[in-house]
Design brief:
This protein is an alpha/beta fold. It has two domains: about 40 residues; about 230 residues, Rossmann fold, CATH 3.40.50. Helix content is about 40%, strand content about 20%. The protein is built from eleven helices and eight strands. An eight-stranded mixed β-sheet has the order 1-2-4-3-5-6-7-8, sandwiched between helices. Strand 1 and strand 2 form a beta hairpin. The chain starts with 11 loop residues before the first helix and ends with a helix.
Length: about 300
């Protein structure tokens, strides 16, 4: 049996290296080598940070409260013209319509953690669509390393067009009430901000998790209410917030940023030791409060 390392047992320097690895500054082999050379036990700490998706499932795909399946839809201007996504819906009568929420993955495609987030939203009464940006090139390959390489190799403008088309598909779905919220994590958090600007008043609410901000030229186009979640130890993302916050205020956008003490980038992802239960629970309660208030009324 492999001994699991608790988050507090992992040196901050290893977390910093992992963040670089996650965002493409090095490959898996280089990450492990640098961690091993950095300090005694560094390689074990590094290996402990890789996701264990069996731990991520909180809502079973057989949960009787929901129905979940994969769907395909057109995506003009995207990578291939067609997209695939994971659609989770609450169980209701044939005439029931639900507010829609788009769930945007990290920089590695639609992994099991993101699918679970979609099911969580479905149990809360939302029609949740989690698109797989890698579907035009074969889909999420079953591991994050290969997923990251595939996503890095895509035309990023077309990939973001695929996310925009996914948002429109969710909003206009036959089961949708027509109201739309967006949430996303890491890369998906940044795209949440971008879609809020791109879609204007077609989006009612956005809840980005540790996502890159957009500039003032885009902030002025945002009409959605935003609740933004940040890790305490995440300077690459956090350094973009003050200017974004100022731009949102100038544009009259209702927005609230929350920083969670003692957390690392990725604290909501319960498949790695970066997961912080208290911060994940609190941030999720704030996300649900936003979506319940803005999408269900």
């Amino acid at each position: 049996m492999t001994q699991e390392l608790l988050p507090q047992a992992i040196d901050p320097q290893i977390y910093a290296l992992y963040d670089e690895y996650c965002h493409g500054a090095m490959d898996r082999r280089e990450f492990l080598a640098k961690a091993g050379a950095l300090l005694v036990g560094g390689m074990a700490m590094a290996q402990a940070l890789f996701p264990r998706y069996a731990n991520a499932q909180t809502i079973s795909f057989t949960d009787p409260r929901i129905k979940a399946n994969y769907v395909k839809f057109a995506s003009p201007g995207g990578t291939s013209g067609e997209m695939r996504g994971y659609l989770a819906q609450p169980v209701g009568t044939p005439s029931t319509k639900f507010p829609s929420v788009l769930v945007i993955h990290e920089n590695r495609g639609l992994n099991p953690y993101i699918e679970d987030v979609a099911r969580r939203l479905a149990t809360a009464g939302f029609l949740a669509l989690a698109p797989d940006g890698l579907s035009p090139v074969g889909g999420y390959p079953g591991n994050d390393d290969d997923g990251k390489k595939l996503q890095d190799g895509l035309d990023q403008t077309k990939l973001k067009t695929d996310m925009l088309n996914s948002a429109l598909f969710a909003k206009n779905h036959a089961l949708s009430s027509g109201k739309l919220g967006v949430t996303g994590f890491c890369w998906g958090g940044g795209v949440t901000n971008e879609l809020a600007a791109e879609l204007g008043d077609a989006v009612q609410a956005g809840a980005p998790y540790y996502g890159l901000s957009v500039g003032a030229d885009k902030s002025v186009k945002i009409k959605a209410e935003l609740v933004l979640h940040f890790a305490e130890n995440d300077p690459r993302i956090n350094n973009t917030w003050p200017q974004y916050e100022s731009s949102l205020k100038t544009a009259g956008v209702k927005a609230q940023g929350h920083f969670y003490g003692g957390t690392q980038h990725g604290f909501h992802n319960n498949s790695t030791p970066r997961f912080n239960q208290a911060a994940a629970d609190l941030s999720w309660s704030r996300t649900l409060e936003l979506f319940n208030r803005t999408l269900k009324s």
